[in-house]
User: What shape does this take?
Amino acid sequence: MFGKYHVKKDERALLFRKGDFVRVLGPGEHKVPFFGGYEAEKYSVDKPLFEHRLAEYLRKAEPEAVEREFVALELGPMEVGLRYENGVLAEVLAPETRRLYWKGFVEIRFETFDITRDFAIAPALARQLAAGSVRGSRVAGTEGVFAVQVPQYHVGVLYVDGKVEKLLDAGLHAYWKYHRDLRAELVDLRLQSLEVAGQEILTKDKVSLRVNLNAGYRVTDVRVAYAKQAKPMDYLYKELQFGLRAAVGTRTLDELLENKGVIDEVVERHIKRRVEGFGLEVDSVGVKDIILPGDMKLILAKVVEAEKVAQANVIRRREETAATRSLLNTAKVMEDSPIALRLKELETLEKVTEKIDKISVFGGLDGVLKDLVKIRA
Assistant: This one.
């Protein structure tokens, strides 16, 4: 005795007898015995991926059924696949992927790439994968793609398994990551500024200074720079530190304050010598700040104040000496000339009378002059 089993147009069914696979049931009416342990499992072909515990069994034991009902994919250890649904990219498939997809309403197509030697992705495909979606649909499996966007005026350094593989021009670059450790570093080719800040350094006379230095540099040969140093900027920073310590540590505080440009000169000579042949060029070096400890600031302020007071005293003594010398010259003139002495006496008398409110004169002006001022002939 048979029963009818209906499969819709957008469905497929697997018929089992006592747990063993019998056949695939296509759309339509199927006669299935009531007895004998028959059962069926339905699948919607709108979702084409076939995931079942018997997938590998079907591949090996039922190749004709697989050929008729499924689109099969099997990738090698150095192959990457792209799956398209109805002509639209849907998924990136990793090496050694094995899949079965129902044939039916969704057109499934695959594209494979051998990544044994060439693991770069074509620019057009790279743009699709970097965007992560095509026509509004998300592309699955993009975690297997390594993409780097190199800005204008930059160069990208691509590392493969820790070694420099190639230099990347400005633009988008993408690679398959499988079986490789990929990373990239961006290098700005323009003139850049590197600050060495907060350097605590002892001068030759044991004064602690905090110095901030700024250097302008550019990378002239990226391949040489990254071939000789894993991190060229770290190397440049350390050499600036060494040059700064050499400039400050071998001079006293007074020498540094008297000639502030000596630090720039010493550090610039040091750094240019150290980066020669390393693909780097130092354009300029300059000290931004020299910061003294709080107690040293007070001491220097007192020293400056004392120097200014001493300078003022010297000026005042010079003026007093000049005034005394002028008086001496005047006295010598009056000693040799009674008339000059008389004029000086009259000038003095005039100044005295200016400060007197009322003067009484007896005996006339001649008497006043004779009684108050006597001239020895």
